[in-house]
Amino acid sequence: MLIREATDSDLNDMLSVERLAFGRDEEAELVRALLNDPSAKPILSLLAFKGDLAVGHILFTTAHLTNNQKTTAIALLAPLAVVPDAQKQGIGGKLIARGLQLLSRSGIDLVFVLGHPEYYPRHGFKPAGCLGLEAPYPIAHENSDAWMVQALRPGVIGSVYGKVICADALNKPEYWQE
Fold first, then answer.
1. Whose CB has fewer CB within 10 Å in the chain, the N or C terminal residue?
2. Residue 132 sits in a domain of what CATH number?
3. Three-state SS for 134?
């Protein structure tokens, strides 16, 4: 398997992976919107290939933290997709690991995700709300553990607080219901 940064010429592969993984168009259209959203930049978009076939995609976009006295660089992971025939083979985890490695090298301090609380903690994420790091929109109490964070630098968690301000394309309440 090969994981590499996506290029503009990979758009059809990215959108195809998103559609196949989720069985609908919403995530593919969100990816398209984020790729064209200046407020989402810089973006890290990775594709996983088995041979010549794109089987996984992950997208990280820039975000900001309110009440940020320090200059804390943050990113938001959304979405992560693996085509059905390639699921449960560790591809999603490899995409996350490679993305976090590249983000760490580029100076990102925190990465946030709204996702399955059984999956993302296996990759180093922990609940964010109880740490004073709020989602862009309120998360229902019963789903509060789905809003997670991972520090890419020691000492960041506990030293910053506030609400995450995401890219304009993600700044819609319907994206924040888990």
1. N
2. 3.40.630.30
3. strand
Q: Is 152 helix (H, G, I), strand (E, B) or coil?
A: coil
Say how far apart CA 16 and CA 21 lie, in whole Å: 8
Give SS3 for 71: coil
The pTM score is 0.95
For the CA atoms of 173, 37, 58, 29, the dihedral, rounded to the nearest 10 degrees, stands at: 70
Contact 9, 15 (CB under 8 A): no
* Tens-place pLDDT, residues 25-77: 999 999 999 999 999 999 999 999 999 999 999 999 999 998 766 689 999 99
Nearest CA to 76 out of 67, 65, 87 is that of: 65
Handedness of CA 133, 135, 138, 143 (dihedral sign): negative
Give the chain's domain count. 1
What pLDDT does residue 70 have? 65
Which residue range(s) make up the domain with 43? 2-176
Q: Cα(24)–Cα(55) distance, rounded to whole angstroms?
A: 16
Closest to 104 in 3D by CA, of 153, 40, 48, 58: 153
Burial call 125-149: b when 16+ CB within 10 Å, e when fewer: bebbbebebbbbbebeeeebbbbbb
